[in-house]
Design brief:
alpha+beta, Nuclear Transport Factor 2, Chain: A, 6-stranded mixed beta sheet, flat
């Protein structure tokens, strides 16, 4: 075998090994992210699942979630209150009352208009799957804490 052929085989082998290592590294990172998200999304009690989901949503988590698509606007929230969960077997419902940020004096087109603020009630469904409780997230407009959105805008989303 001549020297040039040996060099080409060696270089091709190194290229393939590098590509394989890069793909495997990305797969390991993806698997770790999926495991972390699943661990956060599933909880031992329906109340814990709802609390975890609301923290995720109000911190703007759904804005960074590629599976849900892109949202042009969000409901800006100053406060919220969760009513007691009503459960029937492995399915629970809870009503969350959101207090909206008045948007009349805000120059923020990302915010759904609530000129004088106000409140709204949103129903969430929590289901038990595989021994863990998870919130059924809809495709509705996300509710984001005003403080969290301001922080994201300062940091450049």
């Amino acid at each position: 075998m001549d020297f040039r052929v040996s060099c080409r085989i060696f270089l091709l082998k190194n290229f393939i090994v590098e590509k394989y290592n890069a793909v495997m590294k990305n797969l390991i990172i993806l698997a770790a992210l999926c495991a972390a998200f699943t661990a956060q999304a599933a909880e031992a009690t329906p109340q814990a699942a709802l609390d975890q989901f609301l923290k995720f949503e109000l911190d703007g988590g759904r804005l960074h979630n590629d599976t849900e698509g892109y949202y042009e606007q969000v409901h800006l929230v100053d406060g919220w209150k969760t009513d007691a969960l009503n459960c029937d077997g492995a399915r629970c419902k809870a009503t969350v009352t959101f207090t909206y940020t008045p948007t009349a004096k805000l120059d923020m087109e990302q915010a759904v208009p609530h000129p004088t603020g106000g409140t709204a009630q949103v129903e969430y469904v929590v289901q038990q799957k595989g021994g863990q409780w998870q919130v059924e997230a809809g495709k509705d407009t996300p509710h984001v804490s005003r403080v969290a959105l301001e922080k994201m805008l300062k940091e450049g989303l």
